[in-house]
Amino acid sequence: MSYLKRYREKKNLTQKQMAVLLGYSYSHYVKIEDSFNEPSVKFLRSLKTAFPDIDMNEMIKKSLSSNQ
Predict the structure, then answer these.
(1) Which of 46, 49, 55, 67 is deepest in the core (most CB within 10 A)?
(2) Which ranges of 1-68 does DSSP label H, i.e. alpha helix?
(3) CA 16, CA 67: separation in Å to the nearest integer?
(4) CA 65 to mean position of chain CA atoms
(5) Angle made by CA atoms 42, 6, 63, in degrees to the nearest 5
(6) Tell me: the pLDDT tens digits for 21-38?
């Protein structure tokens, strides 16, 4: 999820800070950001709630194109 990483860096947040803001463990967040795990709907909702300006369509589009 390179889009997620770029978004986090744009917000000047560490992975640990992002995990806390979303209510997830650091290890779980890292697995999603590094594309080891797919984000759940619950994770995506937490992300959109914490960051209303995030472009979910762009994030999903980038994720799908990198998996092909």
Answers:
(1) 46
(2) 2-10, 15-22, 26-33, 41-50, 56-67
(3) 25
(4) 16
(5) 55
(6) 999 999 999 999 998 998
Report residue 13 as tokens: 């947040």
How confident is the model over 60-66, as a mean pLDDT? 68
Count CA within 13 A, CB hemisphere, residue 1.
Answer: 23
> Is-contact 48 56, C-beta < 8 A?
yes
Q: Give pTM, 2 decimals.
A: 0.85
Nearest CA among 48, 59, 54, 40 for reference residue 22: 48
For residue 4, give both structure tokens: 């997620």
Burial label, 1 (beta-carbon count in 10 A; 0-12, 13-18, 19+): buried
CA 55 – CA 10 distance, rounded (Å): 13
Spatial contact of 59 and 48, defined as CB atoms under 8 Å apart: no
